[in-house]
Amino acid sequence: MDDHDTDAAPDRGRAFYGRRKGKRLRPGQEERLTDLLPRLRLPESGSLDAAALFPRPVTATWLEIGFGGGEHLAAQARLNPGTGIIGCEPFVNGVVKLLRTLDDEAIDTVRIWDRDAMELLPRLADASIGRVFLLYPDPWPKRRQRKRRFVSDESLAEIARVLVPGGEFRFASDIDDYVGWTLVRAARCPSLRWTATRAADWTTPWPEWPGTRYEAKTTAEGRRPTYLTFERV
Question: Which SUPFAM superfamilies match (predicted)?
Fold first, then answer.
């Protein structure tokens, strides 16, 4: 697909992610999936009041799409104990890693959606999310696979809709082609503004950035991450 064409509406039978499960789970992991996940999982249907999803009042609600093993999400929860965070991740092995952290550290400000984030976004109210993270998403590098990339005209319109005025969409990738793909689509989303004014703005991590294991690996392999911040206008 040419970057100057408008993205077609996605096929709802098409997932933006690959496999749902990797290596075999241990008994303790299976137990958390059975006992803890149902308590933290978002309802499967209906509109969602983001602020009411947590057991205590929160000053803001953030959303991380594709949290992997949950390292970044957990770090943000520790740094921002007054903020509620919704984490989306369909990969079971990543979910159980986050569940262990939440359980061990008694973190109560996280809720989980273990399915496609595009099933969740339309259920969130307008201007209900303060910050959205999309960090190192699957780049689907082959041309025939690019329609499976999460970033599209439709997904960015939904992200912009749920962000509060002045809220941020943060995107990180080590794949230059996906960075360019995202910039093109964000540029034609009238409700998002790229905040960069100098090169350091997209080559320097955010101030509270904890890093991820994937990022450490990709940096060691010689690929440079790019950090994009878009503001809801």
Answer: S-adenosyl-L-methionine-dependent methyltransferases (SSF53335)
